[in-house]
C-alpha cells in the first residue's frame, strides 16, 4: 500500500516517530520540538507520534498511544516497559499514516528507527533516522547494561542492524557520524551531520533582575547556572565536587542547578556541606528556561558522554552566557572559540575555569556577547532546517 501522494517537492508531510514521553523539558525533546516547529514555519506539515506521557507543545500536531496508567517515567534512559510501548507506538503510527499520508518518515532514537523501518516497508516512503547517540552506549551510561556482558553484545548487534535499515541518517554531532561509520559499519554515504540548533527568538537574554527576583537570588551574587538532566554521565557528581572548591574561593557565589531527577543530588549536596550555595529548582518548563538562565553570570556543562549531543550549550549561548565545558570534540564543534574548556573529567580543572570566568568580568562579558552572536549566526534553526529539507528532497528524488 503506497501512501505517498505528494507531488509538491517544496512542501512535505512528515511523520515523526518519538518513542519517548514527549515533551518533558529535556535535550532530546527540545531537538524534536524545535525541528518540527522550524519545519512547520517554512510550510511543511509535521505530525509527531509519541508515548502517552508528556505535554503538548504549541504549533505542532501530536498523536499519542493509549494511556498506560502504571508507566510514568519521564526521565531519560532504557526501560523494560519499552517493548510493549513501542508496539503500541507502531500501531498508532500506522493508523495515523493511513489518514495523514506522509511523504517522509523521520524517526528519532533507535526504537523509532526500528518502528520506522517496519512502516517504510508497508507504506513505501523513505525513512530518515535522527541519531542522537548510541543505544548500547546510553544503556551503559545509565547502568542498564554491564560492559561486554552478553546482553550488551546483543544490544550492540541489534543497534548495528537498526543503524543500517534507514535510507539516510543524520547525526547531532560530527563524533556521532564518525562513530556510526567506525563502530557500526554504516556506509559513509548514508550518514551526514545536522548538529542541534536553537530558536534564538525564544532563547535570548532576559532580565537578570527579574530572573533573580523570581528565584530568590541576591542581585549581587555571582551565579553559575546548569540546566539539564541530573545523572552521573551528565557530570553532576563532578560538578558537585567542583562546587566545593569554588565555594571556598569565590565569596557570594551561588549555583543554580535546574533539572531532574534531583533528589539524589540534593542529598549529596547536603552531605558534602555545600547545599547552602546551591538552589535546586527541579524541572524547568521550556518556556521559562530563557528567563531562568538569564539569572546566571556563567553557565556550566560537565557532560561526560563523548558521542551524544550536548544541546544545553546552544541554549546557554543564545542567552548570552559564557560557558564552561569539558574539552571534547562535540563541545568544541558547538562552542568553537567562545568556549571555556576544562580538562576532560577533572573536577579541579572545572572549578578553576569557573573561578576564572567569575573573577574576570570583562572577558566573561565579551564571551557572552560573542556566544550570542555565534548562536544567531551559526546555530539558529532557520539555517539548519534548510539542510534537513534538502535531505528529505534527496530521499524523495531517489525513491522516484
Give a structural overview:
- This protein is α/β, with parallel strands linked by helices.
- Helix content is 46%, strand content 16%.
- The protein has 15 helices and 13 strands.
- The strands form two sheets. It has a seven-stranded parallel sheet, sandwiched between helices. A six-stranded parallel sheet has the order 10-9-8-11-12-13, with helices on both faces.
- Helix 8 (236-249) links the parallel strand 8 (222-227) and strand 9.
- The longest helix is centred in the N-terminal third of the chain and has 19 residues, at 82-100.
- The model is unreliable at 1-8 (pLDDT under 50).
What are the defining features of this structure?
disordered N terminus, 400 residues, 6-stranded parallel β-sheet, 15 helices, 7-stranded parallel β-sheet, alpha/beta, 46% helix, single chain
In short:
With 400 residues, the chain is α/β, with parallel strands linked by helices.
Please state the structural category.
alpha/beta
Chain oligomer state: single chain
Shape field: globular
| Structure summary, number of beta strands | 13
Largest sheet: spatial strand order? 3-2-1-4-5-6-7
How many H/I helical runs?
15
| Fraction of residues in helix | 40-55%
Q: Could you tell me the mean pLDDT?
A: 91
- How many strands, what sense, and barrel or not for the largest sheet? 7 strands, parallel
The percent range for strand residues is 15-25%
Rg, Å, rounded: 21 Å
Q: End-to-end distance, in Å?
A: 16 Å
Give the SSE order as H and E letters. Answer: EHEEHEHEHHEHEHEHEHEHEHEHEHHH
Low-pLDDT stretches: 1-8
